[in-house]
Write a structure and sequence with these properties.
It comes from Pedococcus aerophilus. The protein is an alpha/beta fold and 871 residues long. It has 20 helices and 37 strands. The strands form nine sheets. Strands 12, 13, 14, 16, 18, 19 and 23 form a seven-stranded antiparallel β-sheet that branches. The protein has a six-stranded mixed β-sheet with strand order 9-27-26-25-10-11, with helices on both faces. Helix 18 links the parallel strand 25 and strand 26. The chain starts with 26 loop residues before the first helix and ends with a strand. The structure holds beta-D-glucopyranose.
């Protein structure tokens, strides 16, 4: 149990057969159902029942629905420590395949994961754009480009909904950074909204009919996303004719009548929130017409029908009794393939990659050299590979393969693994293998929840070293204290600590080693959940042997008293749901157990020696889930600590150096010219290490292309700032987002453009020609020849460069193609007419579409292969 477990009864039976869109009732039939309910019952349905479930209503055949994050796995109903579920590569990795087919397959796989857990709606895809490279949550979203984002989102939605599981496009809209996300105001022109930020939502609605959307935390042009009559009612439900359900982001709804009138259909989570009695009173006072409530309920019922949660028992969804386990061989193979497909080769001097896959004899070292074929794998990310980002996209996977494990399985004793410099500046919770539950001996720890009288309300095993307090919906009384106890599996020097808000004491074998008063930063409940404060101490742990000769690890007892306070107004001066959530003491609590880090000088010495001793040095650097996470942004693109110095030291000592970048979003690479090859592997999911080994050894081609331009330096980007001024963040880049702004000279040329990536092929483009497109936009036909000795995958990209300077260059179409070594293929790229549209602010309508300009056939704008003038 944690306080976030849902206890609702689950429906067992579906109208929708997977693969078939349910027929649905007409509007009048839904209204007839709604008409059977009284006002209080209707309003009750419009706030969640628990953190991730909704109320059912037997009298009209409505079963309680279950939602789950999303988007890189289906976590289930618990925020931490839930069942093992498959961990997918992060969205940026999946998007780097530039493949609608891949996105569709991912949607289908997620549907299977959802079915196994009886989840009706997966909270994804995240389709905000990579506006500034500092955005903490970019790893969860696809790209800086709206067309690529929209097309992939639509394919993902089709994959998911084709099996009767709802998708939820998030977060509507202009939620491109995290700093003060609950209070900040994104100031965006209507043109940029329509042409750029709303476009992925529009594509996913038009092309795939997404069944739900999530309204963001932020304000847009001074109005909260949850109250955005203009965006929600006028554009999305009006102009687009969308008939799905609009839910709030978690705790985002701040008001009753303005949100209900502003197009929000459902407040999440529950059971409490700003609607309930307040909304009933609004209707009774005439502030909200009851028909508005009825329309919200109609949309809820329509979603329920689509996911098989409405109707008589035999009309409702029947969940499959058998499903693919998250660690089944077939699932492993899929995740491994998807990860490699999204890895990006940014440099491959002299074709050093792929490395020789077998035996020393085929190694590239000089014959007779003892180093021939040996690989030194260097760096913390090689051993402790970061396979997922932080925040609500986190899941509890059955395992995560490190790069060291992946390479070990592939090349065995040709591999030397060496730890590198520190990559974090904060401690993280203990690996479950570092601790055991003193009562059961299982990996993990024991958690006891105490009430105000010190009575233990629950004591349970946790397989992970963190839990969440503050939502006490399954405990008889509010939790006052939590006691975490664990035995250490190791002995000797250890970094011990705790994480989470509250008043802590920490004892080791009955001796007090410290106490701490930990307070969350900022005004976002997300910060105490997702970036909780930490306290640590370096100490010594000894193993004892009892009378029977059994060895026992040192016993750690960490006790936290939950601090509750009076709700305080946020930085916007308002007392809101968030104020109450923060005051409730909600947050993550965890135990830290980690090795005491060695000094950097010592580490640099050992990595240099290892690099010199091998045929090839593979050095792994990257970000961690503390930088690629929710509720907080980055402040630099530089790698943390001494990682850059480590790469330079390795490059100077090694005969050949390959750098593997274990990060999903741009980082600076000051050593780029010093190394032979650079492979960006992103956050590659549970099969990460195997997939990296496949990529390095050429078992499968790392065929990805960047989904975002990588700046050459901090601040050298068309949009950089993530800290609102006051509470305002101006989208000053307008429609010149990312590569569009770089191409217009709004920032120094990027180090690498959107669309860049070499794979293992070598490409020559033939002449390109224009074809009449069926959809009103032209198609481009081009022949691409792969002159390499590797079968390879190319992504043909077509950009429109308008004639007028006030219009940015933009991606208008793309098509991946697999071509055998020494062969060629003719590719037709359809372009999308929506990219020719122009918003006319004066007329407040779409104006005349663009005419003229030039189509560029390019491998990213840094490598244009052909130009086709348009008449
Ligand atoms: C995130 C959403 C997520 C929700 C539920 C929020 O903090 O912004 O993307 O779906 O939590 O976990």
């Amino acid at each position: 149990m944690t306080s976030m477990t849902a206890t609702t009864d689950r429906p067992t039976a579906s109208a929708a057969t997977p693969g078939e869109a349910p027929a649905g009732r007409d509007h009048a039939a839904y209204l007839e159902l709604v008409g059977r309910l009284d006002l209080a019952t209707k309003v009750r349905l419009l706030t969640g029942a628990t953190s991730f479930t909704l109320h059912g209503e037997e009298s009209i055949g409505l079963a309680p629905m279950a939602f789950s994050d999303g988007p890189t796995g289906v976590r289930g109903l618990k925020f931490t420590g839930g069942d093992h579920v498959a961990l997918f590569p992060s969205a940026t990795v999946l998007a780097s395949a530039w493949s609608e087919e891949t996105a569709h397959e991912v949607g289908e796989m997620l549907a299977e994961e959802a079915e196994r857990q009886q989840i009706h709606v997966v909270l994804g895809p995240t389709i905000n754009l990579h506006r500034t490279p500092l955005g903490g949550r970019l790893f969860e979203a696809y790209s800086e480009d709206p067309l690529l984002t929209g097309k992939l989102a639509a394919a993902y939605v089709r994959g998911l909904q084709g099996r009767g599981i709802g998708a939820c496009l998030k977060h509507l809209v202009a939620n491109e950074s995290e700093t003060l996300r609950n209070y900040m105001n994104s100031v965006v022109s209507e043109t940029a909204l329509r042409e750029v930020y709303l476009l992925p939502f529009e594509i996913a609605v038009q092309d795939a009919d997404a069944w739900s959307i999530m309204a963001a935390y932020n304000d847009i042009n001074g109005v909260a996303a949850t109250e955005q009559n203009h965006v929600n009612n006028t554009v999305v439900k009006g102009d687009w004719g969308w008939d799905g359900l609009l839910m709030s982001d978690w705790f985002a709804t701040k008001t009753s009548a303005p949100a209900a009138l502003g197009g929000l259909d459902l407040v999440m989570p529950g059971p409490d929130g700003p609607w309930g009695e307040a909304l009933v009173a609004d209707v009774e006072s005439g502030a909200v017409h009851e028909s508005v409530i009825d329309e919200h309920v109609v949309r809820l019922l329509r979603l329920a029908e689509r996911v098989g949660a409405l109707g008589s028992t035999d009309e409702q969804r029947v969940w499959p009794t058998e499903s693919l386990a998250p660690d089944a061989p077939a699932r492993r193979a899929q995740l491994r393939r998807l990860a490699t497909d999204g890895m990006v080769v940014l440099k491959n001097a002299g074709g050093i990659l792929p490395l020789a896959a077998t035996g020393p004899d085929s190694g590239a070292g000089t014959a007779g050299d003892a180093r021939a074929g040996t690989v030194a794998l260097i760096g913390r990310h090689g051993i402790d590979t970061i396979c997922m980002g932080g925040g609500s996209a986190t899941v509890n996977p059955p395992y995560q393969v490190s790069i060291a494990e992946g390479l070990e399985a592939a090349i065995g004793d040709r591999l030397l693994v060496v730890d590198g410099v520190e990559v974090r500046d904060r401690a993280v919770v203990a690996e479950p293998s570092a601790i055991t539950d003193p009562e059961t001996g299982e990996p993990g720890l024991r958690v006891a929840y105490l009430d105000a009288e010190g009575v233990v309300m629950a004591s349970e095993h946790s397989s992970v070293a963190s839990i969440v307090t503050g939502w006490d919906d399954v405990l008889p009384r509010p939790t006052e204290q939590v006691v975490l106890t664990a035995r250490l599996t190791g002995s000797g020097p250890v970094r011990l600590g705790v994480l989470g808000t509250g008043t802590w004491t920490i004892d080791l074998d009955g001796e007090r080693v410290g106490s701490a008063e930990l307070v969350a930063e900022g005004f976002d409940p997300g910060e105490s959940m997702l970036k909780p404060p930490v306290w640590t101490i370096d100490t010594d742990a000894t193993t004892t042997t009892d009378d029977e000769g059994t060895r026992e690890g040192a016993l750690v007892t960490a006790t936290v008293t939950v601090v509750r306070s009076e709700p305080q107004p946020g930085p916007d001066g308002k007392l809101s749901t968030l104020s109450h959530v923060i005051a409730s003491g909600m947050g993550m609590k965890g135990l830290v157990v980690s090795p005491v880090p060695a000094p950097a000088s010592e580490v640099l010495e050992s990595v240099t020696a290892a690099a010199a001793s091998a045929d090839v040095a593979v050095v792994v650097v990257g970000l961690t889930e503390e930088q690629e996470t929710e509720a907080t942004d980055k402040s630099t693109l530089a790698l943390l600590g001494d990682q850059d110095a480590m790469v330079s030291a390795v490059a100077a000592a090694a005969s050949r150096t390959v750098v593997v970048v274990n990060a999903s979003t741009p980082v600076l690479m000051p050593w780029f010219d010093e190394v032979d090859a650079v492979l960006v592997v992103g956050l590659p999911g549970q099969e990460g290490g195997h997939a990296v080994a496949d990529a390095l050894l050429g078992v499968r081609e790392p065929a990805g292309r960047l989904v975002t331009s990588w700046p050459s330096a901090d601040e050298a980007a068309p949009a950089w700032e993530v800290v609102p001024d006051g509470l305002t963040l101006e989208y000053t880049d307008g429609t010149f987002v990312g590569y569009r702004g770089f191409a217009a000279g709004h920032a120094p040329a990027p180090a690498h453009w959107l669309g860049a990536g070499d794979g293992y092929g070598a490409w020559t483009y033939g002449a390109a020609r224009l074809l009449e497109g069926g959809s009103g936009a032209p198609s481009v036909e081009v022949t691409v020849a792969n002159s390499s000795t590797h079968d390879s995958r190319e992504v043909v990209q077509v950009y429109l460069r308008p004639d007028t300077e006030d219009q940015p260059v933009r991606l208008v179409g793309f098509a991946p193609v697999q071509v055998a070594a020494g062969s060629e293929a003719t590719v037709t790229v359809d372009t999308d007419a929506r990219l020719w549209r122009r918003w006319d602010e004066a007329a407040n309508a779409w104006g005349e579409p663009l005419t003229g300009g030039t189509l560029l056939v390019a491998r990213g704008l840094g490598d244009v292969q052909a130009e086709l003038p348009l008449a």
